[in-house]
């Protein structure tokens, strides 16, 4: 009798559990490195350090009214630094931003006064002029392919000359006439240059607008398709165009946002002082750009945030007013400014290298 042998099915024995293997691509980075990857972390730490320094070096800074004044100075820089930062994230920058503020204020003032119109007519026309200047910068850059440095440097010189020449031609002076007694002035002043009280301290409305604009810019950058477009065109515009990003629209609209910021700050200056000096604004564009760079934005584009320039502008206001409250020579402000700028660039470089290190 023959016996048949049946094959016993093989049983797969699972391997003993051991440490998970990782190729480095999916490894979770430490929390500290993830925080360092945020562009605003470095400037936040710097702003805290500057604040602590002046709290000890300049005791008047501890007073509520002094802090309100510091926030006011910061807000007038910060409102413009926000659209400038968005433009830099998009890979461009605007050298005409400083004189564009004065162009906007001069337009509203002279149009209202010389034609005896309600000041709101001048305000609206000034907005259209500011947006047109931004659109022109963006259109010329896109159509010619010239660097934004050359395009906006040309606009800077044009506006500087026009501001002086038109003001002298129309008013016979280098400053506009006082418009404080014209129709609509009180309402416009309430919107652009009013003051409200908090705990017995007078706070300028620009501080509120500054924080509102910062929150809006942050939402746009992080939560909207337009924010993705900004980062994409700043990183590589050819690649962005290849995947369907409207590069031309994004570039032009970013320059128009700078124009909007110039209009708003220009209206604040006009309704704060009732008149405008036509030669002002020169050099302010470097302050706006520096605040954005200190805030973590790169001149090469594709990297940055809207919160960083808020802290960058605060550092400017803190140093500018802190030097005065400390009783030091205010001529040192530009030296502090240079140190802050170089320090911020070096810190941002170190932060980026540390954050990307595996």
Features:
358 residues, mainly alpha, single chain, 14 helices, disordered N terminus
Read across the widest sheet, the strand sequence of neighbours is 1-2
Flag low-confidence runs: 1-12, 22-26
The Cα radius of gyration reads: 26 Å
> Average pLDDT, to the nearest integer?
86
Which band does the percent of strand residues land in? under 5%
Structural class estimated from helices and strands? mainly alpha
User: Which shape, going by the Cα principal axes?
Assistant: globular
**Tell me about the biggest sheet?**
2 strands, antiparallel
Helix share, percent: 55-70%
Q: How many distinct helices?
A: 14
Through-space gap between termini: 71 Å
Q: Give the ordered list of helices and strands.
A: HHHHHHHEEHHHHHHH
Number of strands: 2
């Amino acid at each position: 009798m023959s016996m048949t042998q049946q094959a016993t099915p093989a049983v797969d024995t699972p391997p003993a559990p051991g440490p998970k293997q990782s190729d480095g691509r999916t490894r979770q980075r430490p929390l500290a490195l993830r925080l360092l990857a945020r562009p605003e972390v470095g400037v936040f730490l710097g702003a805290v350090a500057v604040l602590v320094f002046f709290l000890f070096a300049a005791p008047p800074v501890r007073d509520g009214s002094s802090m309100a004044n510091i926030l006011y100075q910061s807000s007038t820089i910060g409102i413009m630094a926000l659209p400038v930062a968005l433009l830099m994230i998009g890979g461009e920058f605007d050298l005409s931003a400083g004189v564009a503020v004065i162009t906007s204020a001069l337009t509203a003032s002279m149009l209202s006064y010389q034609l005896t119109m309600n000041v709101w007519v001048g305000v609206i026309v000034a907005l259209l002029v500011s947006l047109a200047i931004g659109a022109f910068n963006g259109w010329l850059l896109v159509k010619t392919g010239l660097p934004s440095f050359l395009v906006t440097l040309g606009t800077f010189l044009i506006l500087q000359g026009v501001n002086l020449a038109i003001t002298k031609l129309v008013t016979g002076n280098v400053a506009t006439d006082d418009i404080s007694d014209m129709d609509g002035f009180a309402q416009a002043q309430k919107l652009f240059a009013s003051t409200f009280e908090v705990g017995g301290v007078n706070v300028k409305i620009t501080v509120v607008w500054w924080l509102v604009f910062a929150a809006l810019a942050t939402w746009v950058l992080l939560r909207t398709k337009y924010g993705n477009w900004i980062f994409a065109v700043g990183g590589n515009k050819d690649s962005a165009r290849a995947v369907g990003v409207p590069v031309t629209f994004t570039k032009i609209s970013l320059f128009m946002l700078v124009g909007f910021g110039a209009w708003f700050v220009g209206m604040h200056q006009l309704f704060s002082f009732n008149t405008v000096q036509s030669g002002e604004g020169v050099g302010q564009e470097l302050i706006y750009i520096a605040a954005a760079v200190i805030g973590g934005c790169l001149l090469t584009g594709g990297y940055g945030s809207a919160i960083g320039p808020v802290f960058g502008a605060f550092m400017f206001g803190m140093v500018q007013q802190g030097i005065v409250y400390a009783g030091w020579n205010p001529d040192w402000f530009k030296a502090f400014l240079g140190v802050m700028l170089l320090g911020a660039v070096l810190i941002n470089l170190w932060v980026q290298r540390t954050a990307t290190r595996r």
